[in-house]
Amino acid sequence: MATKTTRLMAIRLKRGETRQKVSKYTGVPYSTLKRLELRSSDLINVRYLRDLCDYYDEPFDVAKLLGV
């Protein structure tokens, strides 16, 4: 699968936050956050995605966040 950035990554960058910070505050492992942002894996842990949506105060919409 081709790697591309997602809305999830755009949100983080717009907020000026690092993956390390987001990982620390959400409990989402850094490597998982990176894979979600780059869509480098077809496996999605819904719990982690929900945690990120809560942290970013974004609606839970997998298609919109990951560009699926």
Structure in words:
By secondary structure, the protein is an all-alpha fold. It contains 5 helices and no strands. The two termini are 12 Å apart.
What's the helix and strand layout?
Elements: H1 7-15, H2 19-26, H3 30-38, H4 46-56, H5 62-66
Quick gist of this model?
By secondary structure, the chain is mostly helical.
Which structural traits does this protein have?
68 residues; mainly alpha; 434 Repressor (Amino-terminal Domain); 5 helices; 62% helix; 0% strand; globular
**Computed CA radius of gyration, to the nearest angstrom:** 11 Å
CATH homologous superfamily title: lambda repressor-like DNA-binding domains
Please estimate the helix content: 55-70%
Structural class: mainly alpha
Strand proportion, as a percent range, falls in under 5%
- H/E series, N to C? HHHHH
| N→C terminal distance | 12 Å
Number of separate structural domains: 1
Number of helices: 5
Q: Any idea what the CATH architecture is?
A: Orthogonal Bundle
Shape: globular
pLDDT averaged over residues:
89
User: Can you tell me the CATH topology?
Assistant: 434 Repressor (Amino-terminal Domain)
Total E-strand runs: 0
Quickly name the level 1 CATH class: Mainly Alpha
Largest sheet: none
Extract low-pLDDT stretches. none
